[in-house]
Design brief:
3-stranded antiparallel beta sheet, alpha/beta
């Protein structure tokens, strides 16, 4: 006989699939249980691959195509935060930096100190909103065609805007990374934006959690030789670190 917990979890899945997403507070009220009970249910459902945890709730797991930003940012969040904290130390006073619209870079945007007097150029609506609250950052948004899943601006107008600047540092991320295949992404327009960001920058830092290393995506954005350094977490193997460093790319490990 199915337990009350099993039945509730089945109904939670139906509820979220009908609405695409829901908060823990909303689910707690609807099912008349505590938020702690709902959080445990959502974690179990996420572990089984039935739903995807998000900040404050859960969403439908999308298996095809690019996932929305709010779904991507929660994945490996602890690692992303460590990576972002290390990368923030690379930003110095009066820098002009460019930042892409990836979930990892959106975490970096929250870690930039407010006393550096830096200029940030970004194609990310999320980063623009975050950095607008930082008194020490002057924000330039590229504009262009808004891609709703990633909350990023893409296309000819975006690329033209980037080309008008010269930057000290670019901070980008990726969908996958491989020693032979290079830095990879799933969206061709976003890959072109990153190439333009790299082209105007003296230094290029790739921020990626170790789960992406050794995986494959269908578009190569650039070879790893185009990078100044890779900032990743302690889950990367020493053999992989040696491979990247043998190719001339510094590897920075955030503990």
């Amino acid at each position: 006989m199915a337990t009350a917990k099993t039945n509730r979890q089945k109904e939670i899945v139906k509820y979220i699939k009908a609405r695409k997403s829901a908060s823990s507070t909303e689910l707690s009220g609807f099912f008349s249980v505590t938020e702690e009970t709902i959080r445990k249910d959502l974690q179990e459902l996420s572990d089984r691959g039935e739903l995807l945890r998000t900040f404050g709730g859960a969403a439908v797991r999308e298996y095809n195509g690019e996932r929305p930003l709010n779904q991507r940012v929660i994945q490996h969040y602890a690692e992303k935060q460590k990576i972002a904290c290390m990368a923030a130390k690379l930003i110095t006073a009066d820098n002009l930096i460019v930042m892409d619209a990836s979930s990892t870079i959106s975490v970096l945007a929250k870690e930039i100190p407010n006393n550096l007097n830096v200029v940030v150029l970004t194609n990310s609506l999320e980063n623009t909103n975050t950095l607008s609250q930082n008194a020490g950052v002057t924000v330039y948004c590229t504009g262009g065609k808004l891609h709703k899943k990633s909350l990023s601006f893409q296309g000819i107008l975006t690329e033209s805007a980037i080309k008008t600047y010269n930057a000290e540092k670019a901070f980008i991320s990726c969908a996958a990374l491989d020693r032979r295949l290079g830095v990879m992404d799933t969206n061709e327009e976003e890959a072109r934006v990153k190439r333009n960001m790299m082209a105007i920058s003296r230094e290029v830092y790739l921020l990626t959690d170790s789960s992406k290393i050794g995986s494959i995506a269908h578009i190569t954005t650039c070879p790893i030789g185009a990078l100044t350094a890779i900032v990743t977490d302690s889950g990367v193997s020493q053999a992989t670190v040696r491979e990247f460093e043998d190719a001339g790319v510094r590897v920075m490990i955030a503990e």
